[in-house]
Design goal:
- It contains five helices and ten strands, in the order βαβββαβββαββαβα.
- With 171 residues, the protein is of the alpha+beta class.
- Helix 3 runs antiparallel to helix 4.
- Bound molecules: 7-(2-hydroxyethyl)-8-mercaptoguanine.
- 7-(2-hydroxyethyl)-8-mercaptoguanine binds next to strand 4 and strand 5.
Length: 171
């Protein structure tokens, strides 16, 4: 059993429902247990800026899936929620990115962990800090907190506080 962190973001349609549905589908998977959910954050778009604001969360999961299997599971959920992404960096119904997997450095053709841009994205670092303040990136052994100090909180606002996983899934 390993611990992994996944970032979820949505900026099309009913964004909150898309996040909730994705977490429900992960929880339904017999090899995944969702153990923590951050607050929901309302975040300014990064990259392609001429698009709607995002809702973002980060979740902690315990899983017996390999990192590659977890990636496929996340991609299946994106498909199931009929992810629409017309342009790269542009609007999308739901995005699931594996941030950290068991303090491992992974580099395959399809997956890089830690996520290569996580340390520069406030919309990832702020919710991750909330649920895993002592997490360390295995590439640099630096903490999430130290990256967040550099990046700052600009463009990231609390949208809704979440008390627990079950409450979020059934809200
Ligand atoms: O990689 C995630 C998709 N994404 C996001 C996002 O989830 N939130 C914000 N605020 N900006 C983003 N730009 C991209 S691409």
């Amino acid at each position: 059993m390993v611990t992994a962190y996944i970032s979820l973001g949505s900026n099309m349609g009913d964004k909150e429902q898309a996040l909730q549905h994705a977490v429900q589908l992960l929880q339904k998977n017999e090899y995944v247990n969702v153990t923590k959910v951050s607050s929901i954050y309302d975040t300014d778009p990064v990259g392609y800026e001429d698009q709607d604001v995002f809702l973002n969360i980060v979740i902690e999961v315990e899983t017996t899936l390999s990192a590659q299997q977890l990636l496929v599971t996340c991609q299946e959920i994106e498909q199931q929620l009929k992810r629409v992404r017309i342009i790269r960096w542009g609007p999308r119904t739901i995005d699931l990115d594996i941030l950290l997997y068991n303090h491992e450095n992974i580099e395959t053709e399809t997956l890089i962990v830690p996520h290569p841009r996580m340390h520069e994205r406030a919309f990832v670092l702020v919710p991750l800090m909330e649920i895993a303040k002592d997490a360390v990136l295995p590439t640099t052994e630096r903490t999430v907190a130290s990256y967040l100090e550099e990046v700052g909180h600009a463009g990231v606002r609390v949208f809704k506080e979440i008390d627990d996983v079950e409450g979020f899934i059934h809200s």
